Known about the structure:
single chain, mainly beta, 3-stranded antiparallel sheet, Immunoglobulin-like
Amino acid sequence: MHTIYKLLLLLSMLSIFTACDEKTEGDPLVPDILGLKAIDAPNKSYALNKHLLNINAMYSSDYESDVTEYVSWNVSDTQSGVMSTTTLNEYLANAKSGTPTISFSYKGIVGSVIIENIAIRDMNVSLSDENLSINSTYQCDLNATYEDNTSSADIDYSTPFISQVLWESNNTTLATVDQNGLITTIESGLVKITARAFENYTIEINGANEVNSSIEIIISENNSSI
C-alpha cells in the first residue's frame, strides 16, 4: 500500500514539475488568455509627445498580468507614429497627423489600439533673458501649436516637449546648444540656434529683437544686447 502512495506522490510531483517547465517566465499560474488590454493608451497623441503603452493579459480566472516585455509590436502608419527602438512599448507621435493603429501580440493573441495623432501647426522659440554675455548659459523656451488649436502649454507631457526636438548652433565656436535647448555662450558675436521637430518644422533663433516669432540675439562681452 505504501508503494502505491509513493507512486501516486511521485506522479503528482512529476506533473507539477512538467507544468512548471512548460510555463514561460512572467506567466501567472492560471489558464487560458482571453485577450490583451492596453493600459493608459491615449485617445489622442500630440506630435513629439511620448506615451508608454503597457499591455495586460486577461485570463479566464479574472486575473490580469503585465506582459509588456513579451509583446510583439506593429504600427500601421509609420509616417504618423513610430515605436521606439530602445523601449519597445514607447509610442512617439510623429509630426504628421493621422490615425495609426498600434497592434500588439502575445502567445497568438492579438490586440490593438487606434490613436488620433495631432500634428504640429506652428512652433515658437523664445528666451527669457534679453541680455546675453559670454561664458554663460541660457535656457530656450519652446511652444508648439497643434492642428486642434491646443498648445504645448495645455498638454500634460510624460516627457517634456523640448526634449523631442533637435537643436543646432550654426557657430559652435561662439555658442553651443544641447538637446534640451540650453545655450552655452563662448565668445561674443551673432549666433543662429535652430530647433527642428523631425524634418517638417523649423524655428530659428538668429541670436534681442523679436520679429515674427523669431529672435535675434547678440552675445556681448559687457552683458549688453542689441
